Amino acid sequence: MYILLKLNVKISADIYAQRVVYALIIINKAGGLIYNRDFSSPLSKLSSNDYLVLAGTFHGVHAITRSLTPSPITTVIPRPSLTGLEVLETTNFRLTCSQTPTGVKFLLFTEPQQPNCDAIVGKLYELYADYVMKNPFYALEMPVRCEEFDRRLGAWIRGR
Questions:
Q1: Residue 106: strand, helix, or coil
Q2: H helix or E strand, kind and range, residue 22
Q3: Considering only CA atoms, which of 24, 22, 40 is closest in space to residue 98?
Q4: pLDDT digit string (tens) for 92-110?
């Protein structure tokens, strides 16, 4: 019985190692595309114009779903509403959306069975804050052109 249990743990660890992140898209608070990167996507390749359309469309759909979400109980301190579309699952991929308090949206495309997508997006946001927002040459709401961010992001996704 002990050997069977150990074998099951090994199988689940192998399955976890095979899961991948397909792509990352970052959208500013106005709905403009500020960053996109493919990692290992079996999905169709998109043109730069398709990415712009995808960002604008997702921003609109997110705004609609946010307006359909019931309002939380009001508190003394007003807080921005960060609800809306959070996960979209298909048979080919899972889209996880995380919105920052400033309105920037991180769209992460992964395998449908990818566990801990929130932790992955949290790490990506940490890299964004460290290498983009702290860069003195980066202008807010503009496309991200930070080589160090690209290097660290690629290394983290490959080494995860």
A1: strand
A2: strand 21-27
A3: 24
A4: 889 999 998 888 999 999 9
